[in-house]
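Friendly challenge for the regulars: who can give me the structure tokens for this chain first? No prize, just bragging rights.
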Amino acid sequence: MDQRGAPEFILEAFADPSSVRDVVRGILHTIFFLRYFSTVLPHTRDVLGLELPYVRDAEIETLIDQRVAGLVRQLETERHQSNTLTDNRGGFGLALLGGGGGASPSSSGGGGGRGQITIQFLEKRRRKTWYAMRGDDEVPWESWTIKVTVADPRTEGERAKVRRASETTLHNTIMKTVTLANSHKDHIPPITTSDSNPFPYQIHVGGVQQSSGHQHRQQQQQQQQQQQQQQKEAAVKGWATRMGIY
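First reply, four minutes later:
Bragging rights claimed.
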């Protein structure tokens, strides 16, 4: 299977800033549990009332913690940028759900964010060349992308709604993950090694483009960032509406 033929599965995560780390970690561990072809003792952890599988492997745990920390930092940066842009646009409500200063939910500006994190499972293939030097290429055979939406509720009522929406989304995502993993197996490469885990893996966090040193370029990028932030805010509020939060 070439890289273009590797299936990619898209999952959703919805949480508030206090629970997003545990939610994303729980989904990642579930994916690894379903695609970790080694004997492991069953372990579980509670995430929003769900008992999710947990892979007790130091390398996997460390990588997940590092990448999730990077995602959380990115989301925190977006939240601060969102609040700054909201202030600059005239002081509409800072909360994503509901609004400060009497603003309606549709006009409340920031406080939320969106990001994504991707797992790739790889297989090693012998590189074919016409000259003597050879090596191995690591080719993806499957990837999972989690699209993360963070809401920042400001009232007890909003927090309760976000909590219910987070629990529902997590339950649906875990069920979808199990269904996809069990119904898509034909593409899994044959296991040809006795290593504890036969397939390498990578975890990538969606990044933010860096600006250049030229002033005109910076201005263009700032405008683009503002437009992108507005689009993200609209997408987050649309998600909240679909989940019945307001």
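Strands lie at 8-15, 44-47, 50-53, 113-126, 136-150, 201-205. The radius of gyration is 21 Å. Your move, everyone else.
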